[in-house]
Structures are given as C-alpha cells and as structure tokens.
Design brief:
Largest sheet: 13 strands, mixed
Number of domains: 3
Distance between the termini: 29 Å
Number of helices: 11
Order of helices and strands: EHHEEEHEHEEHEHEEEHEEHEEEEHHEH
Shape: globular
CATH architecture of the largest domain: 3-Layer(aba) Sandwich
CATH topology of the largest domain: Aminopeptidase
Radius of gyration: 23 Å
Helix content: 25-40%
Structural class: alpha+beta
C-alpha cells in the first residue's frame, strides 16, 4: 500500500462514492441498491481506504445482538467488502478486514459475523463457517408425509403482521442458539427488503392466534420460502400442508430451513438431496472480551491456560489464564515467555467454532485443530458444548 492511501471512517459526503463502488462490485438490482443506501446504510458503520479522497475499497460493520449461551451478545456483521477493479490485488481487503476487527473491538462487539462470496478468501483471516442451513428444492407433493391439515391460513400484509411475526420468531428462536435478537427496527428493515421482492406473508392461526408464518417469495420457476417459523409442531405441519396445496404444480418449492429440521426424514417418494449449505461465518474478535461476556454452567469450576494462535488479530495471539466460577470467566493475558505452560493450544478459527457451539472439543482435537490432554478436553467440552445454531440474516 502506498503512502498516499489511508483508511478512515466514512462521512456523509462519502455516501455517493460508497454506493458507486457497491454498484461496480455487486450484482444487486437497482431497486435494492436504492433502498439499501436510503434506508439501511449508515456512514458511521462504514470503513474506507482512500487516495486523495477517492475511495478504493470499503466495508461496513452492521451492529446486531445475538443470543449466545444464555447471553445477549453484541456483535458486528461485516458486509459490503469491496475493492475498486483498478485497485485489486494490493491487499486492501485484508487491511479493511483488520480495521473492521479493530472497530469491533473498540465497540466491544466480541463476535464478528460475515457472509462470504467464497469461503477460501476469509479462511486465511480467521473466519470459519459456524452457521449452516438446509436448502431443499422439491415438487410440492413431496411434502405429503410431513403435512397435516391444521389451523387456518390467512394472508396478511407484511407490516400489518409485524407484531405477530416478531412474537412467533421469538418463540421459535428459543429452540436455537446464536439467533439474532430482532428489534422492531430490525423487523421493519427486514420486511422492507422482503417487500422489494414481492414477498407475501402467510400466517397460520388457531382460535384467532397466529402460531406460525411463512414468507413466500415468487420466482420465475419456483416459490422461495425465505423464512418459516412456528410456535408448535402442529403449526409447522399446517404450514407444510398449505404449501403442498398452494404452490402451483408447474413450480418447484425452495425451502431454507434450520440445520436440524426434520423434513429430510419425511420425504414422500423421491430421493431429493437436501443441501447442507454453509450460510454464515463467525469469528471471535477479542478472546478476553468474548470469554468474559458469555455465561457458563453455574456448577462448573475450572482453571487452565490456553494458547491461542491468531496471526491476523495480534491481541488474541498468546497464552491466556482462564478461570471459571459462578457462571462467569476471568481471562488474563500472560507474558510471552510463559507460553510453554499452556494446557491446550488452539487456533482462533477452532476456538470460534468451539465457543459458538458449531463444533465440539472432541471433534477439534481429533482433527488436530486443538492440542490438549484428555482431562482438559473434557473441561472444554463441558464449558462449551455443541449448540443448535440458527441465523437467517443476509446483511
């Protein structure tokens, strides 16, 4: 990077440049881009690299709160990482990603979320996949073994239904970890985006109370259910019954479901593949902040030293003394010359998956991403057991 290139937060005057760079780099519809920069974009969430006030690269960090291990945890969702065509292959994206981590650390957002254009680009910087979806595309009649007539289906206006959607989502999300705690503003923006794609909302009701919903987006040759949630299994079966009957026979049905959904066990006839789709990456921004913020089983007491390998965020690279008591952690960075005293050694990618609940200590140890003894491995397994993760935010 030359001396004339510098990084800074965007200001209001940079909006047109950031928008033009987005148009150069991403294949979004004009309607979406117009909406995004009028309603969603915030300069204070945007970082840029500039040469004499001309923007060369940009990234945004959108603040969210997620529910993780019994804790409402602040995080940042990195989106819109882009570099002008004439400025590529100079390491600018790498510089921006480091600046994103610095900004998140400053804002005490100990977890970073990211939806990649390709995983390979971000693996090298410590973001692993943690969230997965089931993607299923089938003929509607394939639902007949899972569908059951129940309740009453009602089409509702997206914004009219917002309160019901939020209430149902909150009940549904109790079954999962890592879910976004959606505010009324989050729902407003989500539904505005859905409206751009002519999405229709269907509620399933019983005794006048909405017990589930599906957001139905028409596409050229299929119907895409961008989100479906329910308060009870009867409502799920009723929604599937509705979809089986309402989707035209000449169209396919595309469902995007949580990783644990049982529909793959209920296919009627054909052996259609359900794709386990790598949906979202997650990375620990600051080891100390993250481990001290989340909650632990109240009965667990532990003390050990962990060596973390993180060549991208220097403040994480080293040995940490970790003490767990009364459901809380105390984490202290040790002097460099005490590195040989670690009870376990782990990469930042593996630690991120472990703490998020995407993979177990046993799996990571078997795959040589965690080096430790049997006793410490058992402690890590108890402190951070595998969780049932779900998230459905795209930016």
């Amino acid at each position: 990077m030359t001396d004339t290139v510098f990084g800074r937060r965007a200001n209001a005057e940079d909006k047109a440049q950031v928008k033009q760079l987005w148009l150069q780099c991403f294949d979004d519809t004009p309607e979406f881009v117009r909406w995004y920069f009028e309603r969603y974009y915030q300069p204070e969430h945007t970082l840029g690299l500039f040469a004499e006030e001309k923007i060369l690269a940009a990234a945004q960090v959108i603040p969210y709160r997620i529910q993780l291990r019994g804790t409402a945890l602040d995080c940042g969702y990195v989106v819109g990482v882009c570099t002008a065509p004439e400025a590529r292959n100079r390491g600018y994206a790498r510089t921006l990603l480091q600046e994103c981590l610095h900004m998140q650390r400053e804002h005490r957002q100990p977890v970073s979320l990211l939806m990649p254009f390709e995983g390979q680009f971000y693996y090298r910087y410590g973001w692993p996949f943690c969230y997965f979806h089931q993607q299923i595309e089938i003929a509607p009649k394939e639902l007949r073994c899972a569908a059951k007539k129940w309740g009453t289906i009602r089409q509702a206006g997206l914004f009219e239904a917002a309160d019901d959607l939020q209430r149902i989502y909150e009940v549904f999300a109790e079954n999962y970890d890592g879910t976004v705690l959606r505010s009324a503003q989050n729902w407003q923006l989500l539904l505005e985006d859905a409206a751009l794609e002519q999405t229709v909302c269907y509620l399933i009701e019983q005794d006048g109370t909405a017990e589930g919903y599906c957001l139905w987006t028409p596409m050229e040759d299929k119907i895409f259910i961008r989100e479906m949630a329910w308060c009870r299994e009867d409502a799920r079966a009723g929604l599937l019954d509705f979809l089986m009957k309402a989707v035209p026979e000449n169209k396919r049905l595309r469902l995007e479901l949580p990783d644990d959904d049982i529909l793959v066990y209920q296919m009627a006839a054909s052996k259609h593949a359900a794709v386990r789709y790598p949906f979202l990456m997650a990375r620990i921004v600051d080891v100390k902040q993250c481990l001290e913020t989340i909650c632990y089983p109240a009965e667990e007491k532990a003390a050990f030293c962990m060596a973390v390998k993180d060549t991208f965020a220097a403040w994480n690279h080293g040995v940490f003394a970790i003490q767990i008591a009364d459901g809380q952690a105390s984490v202290t960075a040790l002097e460099e010359n005490r590195g040989n005293e670690a009870d376990c050694t782990i990469t930042i990618e593996a630690l991120s998956q472990l703490v998020m609940g995407a993979r177990s200590a046993e799996q990571l140890q078997r795959q040589n991403l965690l080096q430790t003894g049997k006793e410490t491995a058992a402690v890590l397994q108890r402190l951070w057991p595998v969780q049932n993760l779900y998230i459905n935010e795209y930016y």
